[in-house]
Amino acid sequence: MRFIDGPLRWGIIGCGDVCEVKSGPAFSKIDNSSLVAVMRRDADKAADFAQRHHVDKSYGDASALINDPGVNAVYIATPPSSHEAYALEAMKAGKPVYIEKPIALNSASCRRMLEASESMGQPSSVAHYRRGLDLFRRVKQLINEGAIGRPTLVQLNLLHPAKPTSANENWRVDPGVSGGGLFFDLAPHQLDIIYWIFGKPLSFKGTSVKQGVFYDAPDVTSLSMVLRDNVFFQGLWSFNVSQSQRHDSCRIIGDKGSVTFPFFTSFTSASIEITKGEDTTTESFTFPVNIQQPMIQQVADYFRGKGKNPCSLAEALDTIEIMENC
Question: What confidence tier does 167 reach under pLDDT thresholds 50, 70, 90?
């Protein structure tokens, strides 16, 4: 891989809502890194972002940012339908890429990005940023240390109320832009953590249906997987329930106890519950203000050849193959 010698000078393609707090400011807060340019198709909005976040340059054209000699690393934060084109252009320009999730519309697109990264020797990483948060690192530690004994079952449920929205109002429910509705938008974070803890599934089978009337994408998905050591995973996602039925939990059950935690309850703090017999303990965690900052630090270290890739395109490929078969 062709790593960067010296500080990273980031350019963002797609400086929208995700970049305002979750990610954008972090590029200038981590070591050996700064945010020097941003791009959005609406050049006025890009300029406004740049002014508010003290970024020197703004663009209304992605190619102009990619070919800016002052930019040596690119963060792609657009909807998935444009990830591949921008990633390939940036890698051809000799610049490593950090790509938002969902990684692409489908596995074929992700595979082409992976092949380009390998053939060009350009580092690439995926924004499955929960890997960098203390809560999920603690869950992985508990499983690996045998705190709940031998894992046997994973139960994941994400139930959200139906929202009267359309593809014109929210690209996330337009499969042509997002890949497959709200399941494609949210499940990558959850499935990636399961993958991170247990590795590539031995087998999987999923089903999706459309129950609601607000948009054309499926809004209910069921997924079963067999993980390493025959750990059984059962997941259910529904975006068509009443407010009273809203639910977000993942429970990993072992032969000596269980650990339960949420994924999306809050962007500021969350807790895990560890149960052994009749005893339950709670551990609470506070998230960074810029929630992607720990992951971005790891990505920056990798791009400079100072650390391992925190989430590779190859790992993201395994995840999206599961999702597109639901």
Answer: low
